[in-house]
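Figure-free illustration: sequence to structure, shown twice.
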Amino acid sequence: MAALLVGFLLLVLVIFGFHRRLLHFLVFLIFFELVLGGSGRYVELSDFISFRKALFVFTWLLFVVFWFYRRTRPRFPLWSFRGSCYASLLAVFTFLFFGLGIGILHGNDLGFILADSQGFLFLTLSIPLCYFAWRAHITVDFFLAVLVGSTSLYGLLKGLLFFGLQTGYFGASYLADLLQESANQQVVIDLMGSHYRMNSVGDAFLMLSFPILVAVASSARGLRVKLAASTGIVFVLLGLFASGTRALWWGALLGLVLLVALARSHQRLKVVAGILVVIFVASQIFSGAYGSTTARIASAFNAFEGGDDFRVHQINVLYEMARERPFLGQGFGAIAPEVSMHRNNPYIFEMETVAFLMKMGILGCAAWLVLFVWLLNALFRVSRSLTDPMHVMVAKSLCGGTLAILFAGSTNPWLSVAVGMGACAFLFVVTDLLRQEIPLPEEDAKTASRASRGPFGLFANSSPINGAPKANRHS
């Protein structure tokens, strides 16, 4: 009841003119929670409603209120749907409605179906977030600062906790128990008891932020921005090292390599990339975890070592299930308890790519492919049209970050959950805001405005402003 009252008061404040600061705070809160919130259990509103779910509902409710409020005021320009985001909407509707329908048709457990589909809903956050960015004049730099700031803090906490467990300082044992109980931050100890790993689904944002920070550090003009980005790189590297997750290491390296390849004429970036590789290797040589870390890297090339033999068995089982219904899939909520590592959630699998093929079939995978091809194409085109050197490098870094998410998410169970879909939503929002930074031709600049373009191509001015003709170069 208290949460509903607070939400109602926020809606009242937004309606009566305090909306811009509140929308800035809401955007900050969403990504801060996705990065640092673990499984969303820091603030439990009930046994079934976490703070993350309540925040998602409130965001959409606020968007609907703004939508109808402006539609009922003739003095405001009307907004209508435009077609530049068909890829994302196709994916969302395919994931939710097609997956739900097939799951129900095949008799899958309804509770598992609903739980399995929750993560995909977070992809739809791109729509209200883009609208809020237009409504409150939120810049792309604000979104980037929120992401890399939250991620840097998260990496620092993980690094301190990791080295605290190794040395016994910082009260790390108590903090580790608290995190595991309240936020699903897992602490994994190897068989020799000499190496700790800090695992969480929020690690995906570490991998996404790494190439962004490198791009900013190598292309920003101000000294303070360079220092802040360099500090963030150190903290993110701490978090990546503490995770002990091979897929994150390879994904971060892939993002860095792609960034260097796309910006091959940027000599400063190559120097920064070389320094980062030296720092990462040196940190493992001079740490007590070097032997264990190198063993984990080597095990990536051995399908029958560590947990990889279980993954191979899981691939075989899921592939056989996919062959039973190759085009439509088994639907959401399909389970295989014998190869699931989550007893309470038997619909979650380590091998996300094969599991996705099993659940959604070839048609669902095609929609997924269209989504990311559209995103990569948009980022690449934006990077060729921007004039700000830092934004150009950020757009190129997001290309690498997108492929890194696909790569690392294929072997870890976070791509289809709230964090993975939230990361994808962030990519769409930032892509749209970068598109709005593209200089307009001189003849269009006289009539075009931020309002007439509309956020993300979803909303465009359908009536002239002050008698001027419509202008929407992104539709």
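We now fold a second protein in the same way, so the two outputs can be compared directly.
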Amino acid sequence: MSFSIESIIWAIFFLPVISFVLCLFKFKVGESRLAGPITVFSIGVSFILSLYAFAKILSGTPVFSERLTSFSWIVIDSFDVTFGIILDPLTVSMLVVVT
């Protein structure tokens, strides 16, 4: 099973966010033993995906150093603010360090 690098990068970003929202609205403080494992699992998967992206950089794959634009956030005449991720070797290195 092969995923595009764009979907992997978005998964690195959204997995911890989804686990945060799930734990915020689903579990009460101190009442659930499931909140911790869900959070640790999502951060662990994000870390593994970050290592995969870093390995792609080390292998010299030229797919990186591109701008991944997801959608236009604000559009007023010729003024356009887009939401996306700039993917380069520094970004992928910081993904591993921060995760």
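Summary for the second example: The helical segments are 5-26, 35-58, 89-98.
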